[in-house]
Write a structure and sequence with these properties.
By secondary structure, the protein is mostly helical. The protein has one domain. Helix content is 45%, strand content 8%. The chain has five helices and two strands; from the N terminus they run E-E-H-H-H-H-H.
Length: 129
């Protein structure tokens, strides 16, 4: 992961790869495959996840389920307005943006959000008075 330090403001900035979720030690392709299986549009990660990874993927899906309304609003007209279930939303998001990397990029660049949380690292810097 790339990290940069600003000597002027003394902040360190990390740059996540396009398919990585903030604060989750999971590979993007594995998350996408797991979510696809949960939504009934794929067969899941291959090879199947070991116990530790499986727990992380389950927790990610559980968190995703709590964000349906936030993410539906963020995607606006790109997804159906009658969606109420996480499975439906994931399928619509995949149709709109095709990959997890594209979904994450869209959320970060247009809404300063991520799939599983609203993180400080994605917020725009506040203007100095």
């Amino acid at each position: 992961m790339q990290r940069y330090w600003c000597p002027q403001c003394e902040l360190t900035i990390s740059v996540l790869p396009a398919d990585r979720l903030p604060y989750r030690p999971l590979e993007g392709v594995r998350v996408q495959s797991y979510f696809d299986a949960r939504a009934g549009i794929g067969s899941g990660p291959d090879p199947p996840p070991a116990e530790l990874e499986a727990g992380g993927l389950r927790r990610a899906w559980t968190r995703f389920q709590t964000r349906v309304s936030i993410l539906k609003e963020a995607f606006g007209p790109l997804v159906s307005s009658v969606i109420s279930q996480a499975e439906q939303l994931w399928e619509q998001m995949r149709l709109a943006k095709e990959t997890l990397a594209a979904i994450l990029g869209f959320l970060a660049q247009t809404r300063n959000l991520s799939l599983l949380g609203d993180y400080r690292c994605l917020r725009l810097p506040e203007a100095a008075d």
